Amino acid sequence: MSTFSERNGFVSARPIQIENADQALRNRIWNYFFTNELKNWDNLMLGLDSKYGIVEEMLDRFGHLCEDPGSPRGHKQNTNALASILISKDWYFTFEFIENYLALSDQQFLKQRVGELNKLLEEEKSGYRIVILGRGTSKHCEVTPITNQRELQELEMATKTIHDSVNTHIAKAIEQYTDRRSPDYKNSIKESICAVESLCCIITGDKNATLGQALKKLEENRVNLHSSFKEALNKLYGYTSDEEGIRHGSIGYADVKERDARFMLIICSAFVNYLTDIQSELEPEEQ
Can you give the pTM of this predicted structure? Predict the structure, then answer.
């Protein structure tokens, strides 16, 4: 569900964060770190005797001076310094913070921590996720992009075709995918495939055709697709439209993942742009 401000046009819908980490994302990462590592600091201080804690280890890794952590005052100053670094540094430091935190945190809870942080990244529409690499004692975590600038360009291009219906479907798919409070992945997928269907119907001149029917008619309109390519598109359409598909409600909301909606949004946008390019190359009498 979109916010009041988004529904009424006071703010734009939140985009996927690529090469960016906004204030809300940084704040939530710090809150997670604080809640899991620092809320019981009074207990952790017992027996510490001026040895480094995770805050001091993090500061040391980042090359910053530490106050003596053996006192609540020194540790508080170190904590404030670490928070300030996370909030003020360039966007990519946010993910260096995550990688270093996971390297220093209790490995017994590594999988849980990664799952919780990935959920946070998903909720904040970050274009990055954490993966666990290696096995046993050699395990480590890396933050990796789940999409890239080229893919984002495909999405943007697909909202700026000469066909309003196509643009509207892709825009709705993006809005439902990026809704921070209540993402609707199922309907995002529906809108993505509807954009392709709408464009195929425009090209073939049959506004009542399904995508499967329109794909068969593309050759009649001088849009020649390789048979394997066409088959792949038909299978994607089947994923959303056959009796077990998303459009028929057989797949529950919980079964449609963020990665499913992202894949369909990117691939359908790319196909819209592909067909738009072909259409623009045709002579007017051939369209």
Answer: 0.61
